[in-house]
Amino acid sequence: MAGGGIAGLALAAALARACPGAIEVVVCDPAFAGERPRDERAYAIAAAGRRMLEALGAWEAVAPQAQAIRDMVITDSRLSDPVRPVFLTFDGEAAPGEPFAHMVPGQALLDALVAVCGEAGIVFRACSVRRYTADEFGAAARLSDGETIAVDLLAAADGARSRLREAAGISWIAWSYRQVGIVGTVAHERDHGGRAIEHFLPSGPFALLPLTPGGPLGHRSSIVWTEREADAPRILAMNIEDATEEVERRFGLELGAITLETPLRGWPLAFGFARDFVAPRLALIGDAAHVIHPIAGQGLNLALKDVAALAESVVDAVRLGMDPGGADVLEEYQRARRFDALAMGAATDGLNRLFSNDAGPVRMIRDLGLGVVDRLPGLKRFFIREAAGISRGGPRLLRGERL
Ligand SMILES: Cc1cc2nc3c(=O)[nH]c(=O)nc-3n(C[C@H](O)[C@H](O)[C@H](O)COP(=O)(O)OP(=O)(O)OC[C@H]3O[C@@H](n4cnc5c(N)ncnc54)[C@H](O)[C@@H]3O)c2cc1C
Fold first, then answer.
1. Is 297 close to ligand 1, i.e. is its CB under 6 Å away?
2. Confidence at residue 127, expressed as pLDDT on a 0 to 100 scale
3. What are phi and psi of 346, to 5 degrees?
4. Residue 82 confidence (pLDDT)
5. Residue with the nearest Cα to atom 21 of ligand 1?
């Protein structure tokens, strides 16, 4: 495995736990050397991803820091507007008593998965995978420490700039959104009640996502604030008081007094999609296969779906005595994932184009659309199920079943 981010670790855990002794997993990541920078982001994990983490034994450690999202409110206004009228509300559950998503700190997820992988005897190597060669009998991965290891299958979970994707000659369709995703944690006086709020502002969406109680004012939320590329450096360079004021202008006073608990950090936003998810003895997962706009908080959820699909194909092959890196296994994985990931990428791209736009007629049409959806409970139920990632007949791990 190249890459020990959340996607790589989740796949390693799924494979090693399903077939102890029969599958040997090695995870290579240069980030294992020394102190790994903390992941300060919090992720919206859909119900299907949570079920998988539970089946992998990682959820129990994460649960105390996981905040259920009970409902979601969407507004569409300009920054200068005195009120932000609500156009759309969603509430509902993936199943009775099961929230459709949770907000989870990225570091808690990484720590839990490292612990599960450690218990499953997975070998961690603090190096990168540079190149690989493959033939019908196996693959050889060339590591940055000079060693070459022989494997049946290489999984590239090495992120958006995947070296293995490049080594395999897989083309990458990509464009920049000329936007930056600004992320931070905000402390506030009043309880959010598990509500996620997304304000669609002309520069892009400003999302307020509930976290578990804590912080200097008793309650906390994570913000994902999309700004134009040209304006982001000014915001990211602000001192904490000025940055708090800017956040307050977007956040409003609904949750009482606020203060920034962490400095703001920026992530350049782009779209990227691999023309193929597989090559001989290689499977791309997570951001190595697709990078999408965070407008709907679905990037990591797509990665977890990749993990569930690839793990199931590989484990089934091993149990049947087949080659786990064979072309049939890889084709099955690609069939299961490529269309779904492309559909989500296209949907988030379209949503961002539609909402990061201040033209009067466009605003009128989209607000009309939101109003219509708000009056159709059947359609809203459909969106909740989509947000929960629950589908009939999908991979077993996404239904919470062990492989
Ligand atoms: C602002 C923002 C907010 C987001 N919010 C959400 C959200 O709420 N919900 C959601 O589902 N998604 C969200 N996402 C998307 C999510 O962050 C990514 O999809 C996810 O982190 C991808 O995980 P990954 O493991 O595939 O890649 P990464 O996290 O990038 O991990 C790749 C790993 O590979 C290692 N590596 C790199 N090169 C090599 C090599 N050659 N050999 C070995 N190892 C290598 C790196 O050190 C790294 O550890 C958000 C994204 C942004 C930008």
1. yes
2. 97
3. -65, -40
4. 64
5. 300
Whether residue 32 has its Cβ less than 6 Å from ligand 1: no
pLDDT in tens, 175-186: 999 999 999 999
In terms of Cα–Cα distance, which of 149, 118, 143, 170 is closest to 289? 170
Domain count, the chain: 1
Tell me, yes or no, whether 362 lies in a domain: yes
Residue 183 lies in a domain: no
Task: Name the residue among 122, 86, 99, 103 with its Cα closest to residue 9.
Answer: 122
Structure tokens at 327: 């072309």
* pTM (two decimals): 0.94
Distance 6 CA to ligand 1 centre (A): 7
In this prediction, residues 59-80 reach a mean pLDDT of 89
Residue nearest to atom 6 of ligand 1 (CA): 297
- Residue 263 covered by a domain: no
288 close to 164: Cβ distance less than 8 angstroms: yes
Look up the CATH number of the domain holding residue 283.
3.50.50.60
Residue that the structure tokens 């300060």 belong to = 40
Residue 348 to residue 371: CA distance in whole angstroms: 19
Q: Give Cα 47 to chain centroid, integer Å.
A: 13
Pairs from 143-150 (Cβ < 8 Å, separation ≥ 24) = 143/28, 144/30, 149/26
**CA 135, CA 241: separation in Å to the nearest integer?**
59
Per-residue pLDDT for 368 more than 80?
no
Ligand 1, atom 37, lies closest to the CA of: 158
Does 17 or 200 have the greater pLDDT score? 17
